[in-house]
Design a protein that fits this description.
It is built from twelve helices and 14 strands. The chain has about 350 residues and is α/β, with parallel strands linked by helices. The chain has a seven-stranded parallel beta sheet with strand order 8-9-7-6-12-13-14, sandwiched between helices. The chain has a five-stranded parallel beta sheet with strand order 2-1-3-4-5, sandwiched between helices.
Length: about 350
């Protein structure tokens, strides 16, 4: 029997100590081998001119050339999976991480910088799992100065039909969320609730980035808030997000589901119970099965349901599980979901308005 192929990684970080630590942590996995290190983005480009790893682990804040610029240039010239690895800071700084995602990086993870940090072990596990997963992702070349800007199409007021959209996402979700939200205008007539699995500390930066790249108002959800049309509410770290019988947001510290809090399952189950056919459920790229069974429950109660297709998903686990269960009325690429949402809130049937 053939032994598993080794995953070759280039580590890019301006700290000598951090590079050594990351190399040690990565090579604690027998399937991962660090074939080189670089102290900044320019050194990474120089390395890639000679050797091609399976994954680049990229810091953001570095001298000479930062991680965003290096990611942009790599994806324009010799694309390969880039995982952003950074210590979280304020929202504005973390938003640069998501600009790198927009430029073509496939994932972002928190940096395990000290063994004394209480989250050192989970950060390390997430780092190793992400590198293994992303080594299998097929990336495409990003052409210079050809950034796609989605047309923001307005939607008529939803009168007596759809009342709310719920979206669940994990690995690869930020890219899909940005594609969807940037395609909706600020007068989108219903609120949108989102559960995005993400490393602690990254959420404010994600929200800031989504605000910058869409015309909708994106917020971290708050308990007992009345959700408004044209506004997006993202579940905060370590809280489930749902909708109460009084149509106000519910944040709950109930037990984790599928090992996760927030869980997509909690959100979709809440929408099935409170909204029935007046909701739309969307399940995007991610590992595992969180939300798949509950998306089926939404469909059984008359809701419209969408799963992201395999080709546009970084990881097709969650939407793939939903499709296998028969939970998805529509299977669409990320760049077609915004127009599908507009069609559905305007009461167009699948036969007339959406091709799955």
């Amino acid at each position: 029997m053939m032994s598993p192929r080794c995953i070759n990684v280039l580590v890019v970080d301006d700290s000598d100590v951090t590079r050594l630590l990351l190399k040690h942590l990565l090579e604690s996995d027998p399937l991962i081998r660090v074939i080189g290190t670089a102290e900044d983005g320019q050194a990474a480009l120089d390395f890639l001119a000679q050797r091609r790893p399976d994954v680049v682990l990229m810091d953001i804040h570095m001298p000479r050339m930062d991680g965003f610029e290096a990611t942009r240039l790599i994806m324009e010239s010799q694309p390969l999976p880039i995982v952003i690895c950074t210590a979280t800071a304020n929202a504005a700084e973390v938003a640069i991480t998501f600009r790198s995602i927009e430029a073509g990086a496939v994932a972002c993870v928190g940096k395990p910088v000290s063994r004394e940090h209480p989250d050192f072990e989970p950060l390390t596990r997430n780092l190793l799992q992400t590198v293994r997963l992303m080594s299998e992702v097929k990336v495409v070349r990003r052409w210079p100065r050809s950034r796609h800007i989605a047309a923001r199409v307005g939607a008529a007021a939803a009168a007596g039909g759809i009342k709310l959209v719920g979206i669940g996402a994990s690995t690869g979700g930020p890219q899909a969320l940005q594609a969807i939200l940037s395609g909706l205008s600020k007068d989108f007539p219903v609120p949108i609730l989102i559960v995005q699995h993400i490393s602690p500390g990254f959420l404010p930066g994600l929200v800031e980035w989504l605000n910058q790249t869409s015309s909708l108002s994106v917020h971290i959800a708050a308990h007992d808030l009345l959700p408004l049309p044209g506004h997006v509410y993202v579940a905060p770290d370590d809280f489930h997000l749902g909708l109460g019988d009084n149509s106000r947001l519910v944040l709950a510290r109930e037990a984790a589901e599928n090992g996760l809090r927030p869980a997509v399952s909690y959100l979709f189950r809440s929408l099935a119970a409170t909204c029935g056919p007046a909701a739309i459920g969307v399940l995007l790229s991610g590992m595992g099965r969180d939300g798949a069974a509950e998306l089926k429950s939404m469909r059984e109660r008359g809701a419209q349901t969408i799963a992201q297709d395999r080709d546009s998903s970084i990881v097709h686990g969650m939407p793939g599980e939903a499709i296998a269960l028969g939970a998805a009325a529509h299977v669409l690429s990320a760049d077609r979901i915004a127009s599908a949402l507009i069609a559905l809130v305007n009461h167009r049937t699948a036969a007339r308005g959406i091709e799955s």
